[in-house]
C-alpha cells in the first residue's frame, strides 16, 4: 500500500498510542471501512405465462418439491417458491 507521509505519520501516532503495529492499525481501519459497505440489493423479475403459473399451482399440492416443479415446468426455482407463498397467503400479489 502507498500512503502519503502525513498518513504514515498519523498511522504511526495511532499505533504508538495503542501500543500496536502500524499493520494492526491498517487492518482495523480496513475492517471498519468494509463493515460500513452495504450490499447492493438486487431485484429480479421473472416472467411466466398464465399456463406456466397454472401448471405450477396445480402441482403444488402433489407433494413435489419446488425444485422438481421448477424443473418440470422449466421455470426458475424462485418463481415456484413465490407462487407457493402466494397460494398459502404469505404473499400479496
Give the overall silhouette.
rod-shaped
Helical residue percent?
55-70%
User: If you average the pLDDT, what whole number results?
Assistant: 90
Number of helices: 5
Rg calc: 26 Å
Beta-strand residue fraction: under 5%
Please describe the biggest sheet, giving its number of strands, its sense, and whether it closes into a barrel: none
The ordered string of helix (H) and strand (E) elements is HHHHH
Annotation, overall tally of beta strands: 0
Distance between the termini: 51 Å
Structural class: mainly alpha
Give the uncertain stretches in residue-range form: none
Characterise this structure.
The protein has 5 helices and no strands. It has helices spanning about 5-20, 20-35, 50-60, 65-75, 75-90. It starts with a helix and ends in a 5-residue tail after the last helix.
Looking at this protein, list some descriptive labels.
93 residues, mainly alpha, 5 helices
Task: Describe this structure in a few short sentences.
The chain is an all-alpha fold and 93 residues long. It has 5 helices and no strands. Helices cover 62% and strands 0% of the residues.
Amino acid at each position: 500500500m502507498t500512503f502519503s507521509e502525513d498518513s504514515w505519520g498519523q498511522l504511526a501516532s495511532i499505533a504508538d498510542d495503542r501500543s500496536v503495529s502500524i499493520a494492526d492499525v491498517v487492518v482495523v481501519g480496513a475492517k471498519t471501512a468494509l463493515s460500513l459497505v452495504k450490499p447492493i440489493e438486487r431485484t429480479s423479475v421473472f416472467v411466466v405465462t398464465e399456463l406456466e403459473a397454472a401448471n405450477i399451482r396445480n402441482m403444488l399440492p402433489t407433494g413435489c418439491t419446488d425444485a422438481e416443479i421448477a424443473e418440470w415446468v422449466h421455470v426458475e426455482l424462485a418463481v415456484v417458491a413465490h407462487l407457493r407463498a402466494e397460494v398459502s397467503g404469505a404473499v400479496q400479489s
